[in-house]
Specification:
alpha+beta, Trna Endonuclease, Chain: A, domain 1, five-stranded mixed β-sheet, disordered C terminus
Length: 173
């Protein structure tokens, strides 16, 4: 996104209430995911815990999208609320990924659900070597793999190295 477009989007986002800003983040996510080759679907209604379904090859993922405008003046990080509007946290039974968008920097975090389970918020510090969450910055390739690769990747200590899918449940090598 050009600097001018980013500035315009951020200026517009600051004028929106939380609901409309969330809708703008969902649209931005759908555009980004589609540009990366994912098929994207928006479920009808708001009764599910996820906002969007994405498909890569034959694998479908339930994605919850959260966003943050900027840092609090007293903090050096962005705080993303990871609970829903009723303060209920998410689990791997509800979603497959929580994707966090930082409007001010046009940065995405693609975070597996088990990382955010039972957490009400995450602190994101882009580029920080001390942050365990920074490994998920722009980690779109996590959605380009098979379900069940988490166990394999957890044994190697690197989720980002999981093999891509060629069809449901089968990884290619």
């Amino acid at each position: 996104m050009s600097d001018q477009n980013l500035t315009d989007e951020l200026t517009h986002a600051t004028k929106l209430d939380a609901v409309h800003r969330g809708e703008l983040a969902e649209l931005a996510f759908m555009r980004k995911a589609a540009s990366l080759g994912f098929a994207v679907a928006k479920p009808w209604g708001d009764s599910d815990r996820y906002d969007v379904i994405v498909r890569f090859e034959n694998t479908f993922w339930r994605v919850q999208i959260k966003s943050v405008l900027g840092k609090s003046p007293s903090r050096d990080h962005y705080r993303v609320q990871t609970a829903d509007s009723r303060k209920h946290t998410y689990s791997a039974k509800d979603i497959d990924f929580l994707v966090a968008y930082i409007f001010a920097e046009d940065i995405w975090y693609v975070i597996p659900a088990h990382i955010v389970e039972n957490k009400k918020s995450l602190c994101l510090t882009p580029g920080s070597k001390r942050s365990s969450i920074d490994q998920y910055r722009e980690a779109w390739k996590l959605m380009m793999r098979c379900p069940g690769d988490d166990a394999l990747a957890a044994n190697t200590g690197n989720l980002a190295e999981a093999a891509p899918c060629d069809h449901i449940g089968t990884a290619t090598t």
